[in-house]
Amino acid sequence: MASETIFKKSSLFISRFIVGIVFTFSGFVKGIDPMGSAYKFEDYFTAFGISFLQPLALTLAILLATAEFLIGISILLKIHTRKGIWGAFIFMIIFTPLTLLLALTNPVSDCGCFGDALVITNWQTFWKNIVLLVLILILFLSRKDIVSAYFKKTEWVLSLLFLLFILSIGFYGLRNLPLVDFRPYKTGTSIPESMVIPDGTLQDEYETTLIYEKNGTQKEFTSDNFPWKDTTWKFVDQNSVLIREGYKPPIHDFNILTPEGDEITDLVLNDPGYTFLLVSKIITEAKPGDLKKANKLALICNENNIRFYGLTASGNKEIQQNHQETELDFPVYSMDETTLKTIIRSNPGLVLIKEGIILGKWAAKNIPGPEFISKDLLSQQLLEINKKRENWTLAGIILFWLLLLGYFRPKKP
C-alpha cells in the first residue's frame, strides 16, 4: 500500500511538472511575440480556405498564449489546480485530433506550437500531444486528490499577477519588438554566414517522373523503367516530387529583387558601409506618417553616403503609387512576404546592417530621427542591445518574483 501511494504521488508530481512546464513555456514564447502567432493563424486560415477569419488572428493569438501560460502556471504552482487541469484536458481533447489532421495533410509545415523558439514538424507535434494527453489524463483522473496550495484570495491575486505579466510582455512586443528574438534575423546575426550550407550535409532528394506520349496515349516513366530503345515515345512533360528534405540553413530565402527583376542580394550584403533596410511586408498597409519619418532619416543617410533601401512584397504598381503619395526619397525593392514578416514584426520596421551583419532593429514607432546619423552607429547599437538585455532581465526578475510569491505566500494547512 505504501509503495502504491509513493508511486501515485511520484506519477502525479512528474505529470504535473512536465505538463506545467510545457504549457508555461508554450504560452510564454507565444506571448512575447503575438504577431508571430497571428501570422501562423493566418497561414492556417489560408490553408483551410477560411481566410475571412484572418481579422481575428491577432486576438486569437493573444488568447491562446494567455490561456496556455495561465494553465501551465496553474498546474505547475498549484494555483486553481483543478481549473488548470480541466483547461489542459479540454485543450488536448481539441488539439490532439487537430494535430493528427495537420500531420496527415501538412497544410503548414511548422505548427507554431512553440513559436520560433522551438520549431518542430507536425508529426513531432502530434506525438508530443499524445505524451501530454497521457500525462494530463493521469492528472485529470486524480484531480480531486490534487488540491490548490493557497487560500482563495491568494490564488486570485497570483492569477491576476500572472495574467498582467503575460499580457504586458505581449503588449510590449506589439508596441515595440519582442523582448526576446528567437528568429534567424536577431540582432548580431550574420546573414551571409546563416545562408551557408555546410559541406557534407544532406541535399534535397527528388523523384522525377517523365511523361511521354505514343499513339495518342500518355504514360509516366522513371529512369528505371523508361523504354530507352523505343524512340517512338515523344517527350511531353516531367514532374519532380520532394521525397526527402535536406539541410536548410537558418536563412534560405533572403533575396532582393529590383523592379526590373535583377537580384542585388550580394551587393547589399557585401557593402562594407552601413545600410538601412526599411522593411514593409505590404507597403500600402504601412502608416504614411511612419514612412515619412523613415524618409527623413533616408535624406540624411543620402547626404552621409549611407545606403537606405526599402523592402516590400507589394507589386511594382503599389510601390510606385506609394512613392507618389508619400514622396519617398529612397529606392524600394522586392522580397518574399514571409521573409519580411520573419525579419521584423513591425510594418514598417527598420533594420541596420553592415557587411550583412544585423546591428539594430526598430519598430515603426521607434525609428530614429536624423540626429541618429551624427553618432557612431555601432556604439549606438551596442547601447540599444544592452538596453534590450536590461528589459529582458527586468522581465525575468518580475517572473522570478511572481514564482517566489507562488511558493512563499501563506498556504493552506
Can you summarize the main beta sheet?
A: 5 strands, mixed
Mean pLDDT: 85
Integer count of domains: 3
Main β-sheet, spatial strand arrangement = 6-5-4-7-8
Estimate the helix proportion, in percent.
Answer: 40-55%
Count of extended strands: 8
What Rg is obtained from the alpha carbons, in whole angstroms?
26 Å
Structural class: alpha/beta
Q: What is the string of helix and strand elements?
A: HHHHHHHEEEHEHEHEHEEH
Percent of residues in beta strands?
Answer: 5-15%
Distance between the termini: 25 Å
Shape: flat
Low-confidence stretches: none
Number of helices: 12
Q: Could you walk me through the main structural features you see in this protein, from its secondary elements to its overall organization?
A:
This protein is α/β, with parallel strands linked by helices. It folds into three domains: 2-175 and 395-408, no CATH class; 205-244, no CATH class; 265-374, Glutaredoxin. The protein has helices spanning 2-31, 34-47, 57-77, 81-105, 122-141, 152-175, 191-194, 265-269, 288-303, 316-326, 337-343, 377-408; strands at 205-214, 217-221, 234-244, 274-280, 307-312, 332-334, 349-354, 357-362. The protein has a five-stranded mixed beta sheet with strand order 6-5-4-7-8, with helices on both faces. A three-stranded antiparallel beta sheet has the order 2-1-3, with no helix packed on it. Helix 3 (57-77) packs antiparallel against helix 6 (152-175). The model has no long low-confidence stretch (mean pLDDT 85).
